[in-house]
Recover the amino acids of this structure.
C-alpha cells in the first residue's frame, strides 16, 4: 500500500460517494455534486466513445476542452487500446504545450502500461509495463484461435490480422484491426458472438483475464488487470488519492469496460458521446479555473 488512499488532513475533503449517486450530464454544475466530482485533483478519461468516436481522431472541440482542463488539473487517459492508438487519436490532435503535456498521463491497454511526457525529447517515456509472459502469449493466441474456429467465428476475410500481441494484452478482432466501422457494427450487433467466444476462451484460460473489448474484439490480459487496476496504479504514481479523482466514460454500465472503475467507488461522470464529454470538460475546466482565482 502507498497510503495514497488517505486524503490529506488539510484538504477539507468530503467523504466520496459511489458513482451511482452521481449526477448525469444534465447538471454538471449542480451544487449537490460530491467533492471529487466538483473539484477533482485529477480527471481520468476513457478514450473510444468518450474523447473521440470509436477508432477515430479526437475532434478539435474536444481537444480545446482538454487543453483547458490540462491547464488546471492533471489528466489521464485509460483505454484498452495500445499507445499507437493514443498517438493517432489523441496526441496528434491535442495541440498541447509542453507544460500541458507534463500534466498528461497515458495508460494504454487498461493501465498495464504507463507513459509520461519527456520534456527533453518531446516523446513519451514508458514508466512501467505488466507484460504477459511468452508462454501466456502463446497459450492465449492458440486458445482464442481454436475456439473462434470451433464456434464458426474465425473469419477468412479480415482487414489486417485478427490476432494482435500488444505485449501486456492479446487482442482478438474478428474482422481485423483495420476493419471499417460499418463492417464491425454489422458483424455482431447484439454482442452475442463476442460473449460466446469470451465465455469459451475464459473457461480454458482460468489464469488469465478474458474480457469483451470493442465491437468485435476480445482482450486477454493478466488476471485482475482492468481499468480499476490502472486507476490504482495512477493513485500510486501521482500520490493523488482515488477519492479525489473523477473518471469520465461512456461504458459505465455493468457490462461496460469502464464499469470496474465505478465498482471500486471512484466518482464517475457518465457520457454517451464525445460531444457530451466536450461540453462537460469545458464547463469543468472553467469552474476549476475560477476556483483557482479565489
Ligand atoms: Mg469507451
Amino acid at each position: 500500500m502507498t497510503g495514497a488512499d488517505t486524503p490529506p488532513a488539510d484538504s477539507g475533503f468530503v467523504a466520496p460517494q459511489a458513482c451511482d449517486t452521481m449526477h448525469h450530464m444534465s447538471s454538471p454544475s449542480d451544487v449537490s455534486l460530491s467533492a471529487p466530482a466538483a473539484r477533482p485533483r485529477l480527471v481520468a478519461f476513457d478514450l473510444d466513445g468518450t474523447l473521440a468516436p470509436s477508432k477515430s481522431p479526437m475532434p478539435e472541440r474536444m481537444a480545446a476542452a482538454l487543453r483547458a482542463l490540462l491547464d488546471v488539473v492533471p489528466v489521464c487517459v485509460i483505454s484498452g487500446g495500445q499507445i499507437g492508438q493514443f498517438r493517432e487519436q489523441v496526441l496528434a490532435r491535442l495541440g498541447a504545450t509542453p507544460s500541458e503535456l507534463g500534466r498528461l498521463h497515458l495508460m494504454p491497454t487498461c493501465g498495464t502500461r504507463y507513459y509520461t511526457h519527456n520534456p527533453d525529447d518531446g516523446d513519451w517515456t514508458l514508466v512501467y509495463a505488466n507484460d504477459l509472459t511468452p508462454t501466456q502469449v502463446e497459450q492465449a493466441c492458440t486458445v482464442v484461435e481454436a475456439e473462434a474456429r470451433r464456434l464458426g467465428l474465425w473469419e477468412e476475410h479480415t482487414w489486417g490480422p485478427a490476432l494482435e500481441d500488444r505485449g501486456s494484452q492479446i487482442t482478438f478482432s474478428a474482422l481485423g484491426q483495420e476493419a471499417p466501422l460499418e463492417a464491425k457494427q454489422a458483424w455482431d450487433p447484439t454482442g452475442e458472438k463476442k460473449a460466446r467466444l469470451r465465455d469459451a476462451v475464459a473457461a480454458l484460460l482460468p489464469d488469465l483475464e478474458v474480457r469483451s473489448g470493442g465491437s468485435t474484439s476480445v482482450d486477454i490480459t493478466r488476471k485482475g488487470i482492468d481499468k480499476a487496476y490502472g486507476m490504482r496504479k495512477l493513485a500510486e504514481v501521482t500520490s493523488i488519492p482515488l477519492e479525489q479523482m473523477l473518471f469520465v466514460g461512456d461504458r459505465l454500465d455493468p457490462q461496460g469496460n469502464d464499469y470496474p472503475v465505478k465498482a471500486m467507488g471512484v466518482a464517475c461522470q457518465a457520457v454517451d458521446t464525445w460531444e457530451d464529454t466536450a461540453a462537460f470538460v469545458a464547463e469543468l475546466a472553467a469552474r476549476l479555473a475560477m476556483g483557482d482565482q479565489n
